Amino acid sequence: MGTRTRIAVLGFGRFGRVHALRLQAHPAYEVVCVVDPDPQARTAAQAQGFDAIASLDALPKAVQAAAVVTPAETHADLAVALMHRGIDVLVEKPMAESEQAIDAMLDAVRVTGRKLFIGHIERFNPALIDLPWGQVPGHLVFRRQSRLPGTARSVVLDLMVHDLDLAPHLLRCGPDEFLHILDVQSLEDSMQVVARMGDTRVDFHVRHGADISLASVCWGDQGAWNELLLSSRSDLGQSDALTRQYTAFHHELRGLPSLLADAQDGAIAARRALAIVAKL
User: Fold this and answer.
1) The domain that contains 220 carries what CATH number?
2) Distance of alpha carbon 120 from alpha carbon 248, whole angstroms
3) Would you state the pLDDT for residue 239?
């Protein structure tokens, strides 16, 4: 893939570790360092062979790009600081958890001219390499559940946001296509949303605290239904969704098109999630 991109990984928690290992194995990247304020996280990163630093103040000047895999409430401050240092950024979903944070990130893109992308990984799910239908369905149903505990707010911002991005991506809707929220129902550990996008009804079902983590999409018209199980898990290698996402990031950094969600895409998904949260 030519010259390797020198990248830093911010956050070495449960997910940050996976990101760092995928990047370490990717031929397009050189992982310069891991950044985490937690001494235990830095020790764990060093045990995996990474250089580890406590803050952006010690970030080497050689870094060209960064992956932000930290809690969502920190995304805006870190991404903005990185872009002002001349670094292109890939931020884990959701882009941010407030309108003000979203606006700050978009403003930094405009001011600095740096690239900002959001890790909506389901765009790279191996099950969705090709569209599963021949014509746009009249009804889509997304179901997603996680074993992790959560709140009514986090179930939308952490789980449903996957499908709030995936629905327009699969339906090939433009950024101006409006998502009409028809109904929102919040149960003890789950959320159900009925919406319409273009001519398609889209239902979103999400749940925290389930026995197993899984996701699926169903589609149909006039009683004929199909179901596709979705999974982003794979052995370390070029076929897994996270590796494919970082390949797309590398392409974008070199001016090549990809399926990666850009800052506007990420802002749309996050704002749709916030609009649903506001209806709780």
Assistant:
1) 3.30.360.10
2) 12
3) 73
